[in-house]
Amino acid sequence: MFETLPAPKLDGIIGLMQAFAADTRADKIDLGVGVYRDAQGRTPIMRAVKQAEARILEQQDSKSYLSLAGDAAFLTTMEALLLGGAVPSARVAAVGTPGGTAAVRQICELIAKVRPGATVWVSAQTWPNHGPLIAAAGLKARPYRYLDAEAGALDRAGMFADLGAAQAGEVVLLHGCCHNPTGVDLSPQDWAEMGALLERTGAVPFVDMAYQGFGDGLDADAGGLRHLAARLPEVLIAASCSKNFGLYRDRVGIAMVVVPEGQRDAMAATLAGLNRQSFAFPPDHGGRVVSTILGDPMLRAVWLEELDEMRARVQTNRRALAEALRDASGSDRMGAVAAQQGMFSILPLSEAQVTKLREDDGIYMLWDGRVNMAGMDPSRAGDVARAVAEVMR
Ligand code: PMP
Fold it and tell me: 88 burial class (0-12, 13-18, 19+ CB within 10 angstroms)?
């Protein structure tokens, strides 16, 4: 039956992880895969997670099925984390999902239910899995301009000009914060302008929030999302707890929809039905860890302290690399990296230059020049910058 099935191309990131593991050079640097790393290169289990897990291990007395939406405490604590009371709970429907990936997929399935084949506008550079997830639900991705590659900043005019053509019944996908892969975010003014554009066009925003807490802090990072939620009748949300709780492999995500008053129950039942037809019950363990932490002032404080440490480390690395790049290249374009947010930035490198850095210098990054700031110790910033400047000469 499957003898003619072609092997799909190996996912670029997975291939890069394998190549890095196989590289025997002691001074190799992994700026590729998008996970947080500490100064020792480890992705640790957060202290609050360990404590919450110990509590769950001791107290949990059943692993029987829960509802299709998952643990109610997870849904309400995540609603508060994301929306911060910007809209009444009576306007919010949500379900747990296996990671942010499945949250994106479930929201795409939801769109396809009412608008088969609908257009989803995506920033020209975006998380490489957005396109396949949109296509898998039978929707069409259409790019809008985003990064001004020369300036390393937002192409504001290009973005708003392109999205001016969005129409009612179409969807605009936005990164809540810490844009992957560019590190270029919308300012509060940009979010306000985006709100006005969406109001005018009737297109519906879809906010993907995968790095809340890694930019300017939990509340500031959700500021754009909250502005849209307070202003517009409908907002689609996919959020991930992989990065900010370090729960990557436990698969913790949430698909959430803000609806007009009176429509919540129908939306909640629809989202539950979509879960039923793809995986039925979302995984519980990681979600329970999250609700245990968010619901307990002591654990929450422990979590916030460590999240702050992680954000600070990423920012220290970012500034160190930006400065070293400016010094090594003599160009301010590289200095723009300092103003970007979150774990990622795109360095203006060709695929050939990226390959050369990997082969000659043992510096691993994604083929489009995306670097993960957490993958490097600040003491290596000079090495990275010199190699990058050399390859660009
Ligand atoms: N959206 C974006 C923008 C991401 O970068 C990621 C993780 N790389 C996700 C969603 C999904 O993350 P996960 O499924 O691991 O929670």
Answer: exposed
Q: pLDDT tens digits for 64-103?
A: 999 999 999 999 999 999 999 999 999 999 999 999 999 9
Ligand 1 pocket: which of 122, 126, 129, 254 to mutate (most atoms within 8 A of CB): 129
Could you tell me where the DSSP H helices lie in 66-184?
Answer: 72-83, 99-114, 130-136, 156-163
Residue given tokens 């396949």 in the structure block = 132
Please check the confidence at residue 240 and state whether its pLDDT lies above 70: yes
Beta bridge partners of 364: 30
Q: Tell me the C-alpha to C-alpha distance, in Å, between residue 24 and each of 21, 28, 380.
A: 8, 8, 18
Q: Are 250 and 285 in contact (CB under 8 A)?
A: yes
For 165, phi then psi, to 5°, come to -90, -5
**CB neighbour class for 388 (10 Å; exposed up to 12, middle 13-18, buried from 19):** buried
Is the Cβ–Cβ distance between 137 and 105 less than 8 Å?
A: yes
**For the whole model, what pTM was predicted?**
0.96
What's the confidence (pLDDT) of residue 330? Answer: 85
> HSE of 168 in the Cβ direction (CA atoms, 13 Å)?
5
Q: In sequence order, what are the beta bridge partners of 153?
A: 148
- Active-site positions read 127, 208, 210, 243
Asked if 370 and 344 count as a contact pair (C-beta separation under 8 A), the reply is: yes
Pocket of ligand 1 (CB under 6 A): 34, 99-101, 104, 127, 175, 180, 208, 210, 240, 242, 248, 253
pLDDT at 10: 67
Is the confidence at residue 20, as pLDDT, over 90?
Answer: yes
Per-position DSSP letters for 305-370, written without gaps between them:
HHHHHHHHHHHHHHHHHHHHHHHHH--HHHHGGGG--SSEEE-S--HHHHHHHHHHH-EE--TT-E
Q: Whose CA is nearest to atom 7 of ligand 1?
A: 210
More confident residue, 330 or 133: 133
Does pLDDT of 307 surpass 80? Answer: yes
**Distance separating alpha carbons of residues 177 and 144, to the nearest angstrom:** 17
Of all atoms in ligand 1, which is nearest to the CA of residue 252?
16
Element (H, E) at 95: strand 92-97
DSSP helix/strand/coil, 390: helix
Angle (CA) 193 129 378, round 5°: 80
